[in-house]
């Protein structure tokens, strides 16, 4: 009986230390069978689960965590204990195809299964398929997946249709027994994006990335380039603060020969394809100055140009109802997109999709890109991007805040941030939702988040952003860490709550703007068509009554001057009147000075 209080951990330390050799998990389990048997304060299942957890921490996490090793083990023990009622269940979850989710699917899901006994199948599919499938589950009630990582762009949809569990009530009630006491919601940087007007949290952020301005730092600091630019335009070559400066820089570099190669001043894509839709719903109009002031989204008119009343009910999209989807700022944004794509980007960009255009800047012939997703950072710093890396692995490029258009005013959002977030449908049985919720918390936990963020570079936690490992890695990430640590970060946000049905409305954008990109319609005609189609959808929702007293309630129609005067009277902006001279004075800023200003 002398071994009665000998824990499995102590026994394993003795075993693994003997002869200074690594016995391995099989040998350890054999030792427990032969030597320990029932004489332990832990059950055999608990012993094996914690052994799996420790092996995972040793192999995969190491020093890359904001928690101490003791706290990591304590968090793993909580997951082991909380998962016991669900051991043996087969749980299916889904997310879009990006590096972060591939890491979860290939590494974290098997680890969670080994530690908890809950078998996780984590499917990784295209973003459009995620939206289509969640729409199907909403419409049919069939439980296709137990947990969803879907964009927070659907927050207005989820709040109005009430088909997902609001996590505020879930964590305090039905899901309290499976909610990690160390979850620390205040540490998440994106919860304002996943909170509805009722102040309830509907989704838990899993990954975030912004679209920023990307440029060749080395070319911008080349003395001849600087001198030639100053001679031609009369101001310094630097990070453009507004679209006028971006346009000048695009013109300057396009056709210029650098290192024996013709380069371009701009990169984009224009194929009429679903991916063209999020090129614009991802806040392009707000960068131009569409909508109203407000963080994270403009109110009462958001960056889609959709206006809501004081009760958050959508009342219109066209300027005729006080919206701004076809207003001067929106049309200006589309026209600039068309002009720059034709004049300053490679000819083949016109026929490219999002995924086809993404790798082009890494090939070394593009000077800048106004609309560049930080999700590309990982691929921009790997061995395949030698053309844009120095010999020591540091980037020849940098990322910076996006320039804004002539209609933009201080206090407005300045760009888009994708926030893929865990969502639990009400149609999912409670026990399955609980098991999926455990996995959602595992992959966002403080134990694993630093390591996951190093893999995917899609930050969700304040503590991770400020971890010393990212201070050390920052010089090789081209400004990503500086941006996420800066006060500017809050001006980048996802689609807000004004959008009443994201799946139905989002699909209208690529079709309408595709007509402008192909030349079938002018920018004004395309946006007139888009706002009209959005209002048709909202009118159908209003007539159905399916969203109750928080659904659309369409406003009366008046002309642009009427609604602009009404907005000004109420202290708002949108819809703005047309500015006759849309080529404002160009402004640039030195990148290094910009970063210093953030640090101050």
Protein traits:
13 strands; about 600 residues; seven-stranded mixed sheet; disordered N terminus; globular; alpha+beta
Q: Name the overall outline.
A: globular
User: What is the mean pLDDT?
Assistant: 92
Give the DSSP E fraction (strand runs of 2 or more residues). 5-15%
Count of β-strands: 13
Largest sheet: 7 strands, mixed
Structural category: alpha+beta
Number of helices: 25
The percentage helix is 40-55%
Instruction: Name the poorly predicted regions.
Output: 1-23
Q: Calculate the terminal CA-CA distance, rounded to whole Å.
A: 64 Å
From the alpha-carbon coordinates, what is the Rg to the nearest angstrom?
26 Å
Describe the structure concisely.
The protein is α+β, with helices and mostly antiparallel strands. Helix content is 44%, strand content 10%. The longest helix has 22 residues, at 523-544.
